[in-house]
Amino acid sequence: DDDAEGDTSVVTKTKPKTKRPPMYKVMLLNDDYTPMEFVVLVLEKFFGMNHAQSVEIMLTVHKKGLAVVGVFAFEIAETKVAQVMESARRNQHPLQCTMEKE
Ligand code: TYC
């Protein structure tokens, strides 16, 4: 929209803002005790990765300390984090999964 302001020639643009929801990075954190194979299974089960992708991401976390495993809308990200944390708890692994606004 062009909104003419008063009787001078100043014109301001009003953006047609279609608002997208904020997205959230879901991250996996490294630790010294969670077995590599468990992390690989978690990535396959909850993030729909194939085996090769899962191994690659797991090794990135292992070497760098953390990695983004996916970016989702808030509710989805929350569910992924809860699923990973519950699976880690059930299996008595200290694996940590967190989310952060992009
Ligand atoms: N560092 C763990 C080990 O050596 C493996 C591991 C990878 C743990 C990724 C957590 O998010 C993680 N067994």
Automatic annotation (TrEMBL):
Family affiliation: Belongs to the ClpS family.
Adaptor protein ClpS core domain segment(s): 19-98
Protein name as catalogued: ATP-dependent Clp protease adapter protein ClpS
Swiss-Prot/TrEMBL keywords: Hydrolase, Protease
One Gene Ontology molecular-function label: peptidase activity
Region (Disordered): 1-19
HAMAP family given in the database record: ClpS
SUPFAM superfamilies, alphabetized: ClpS-like
Organism of derivation: Litoreibacter albidus
Hydrolase among keywords: yes
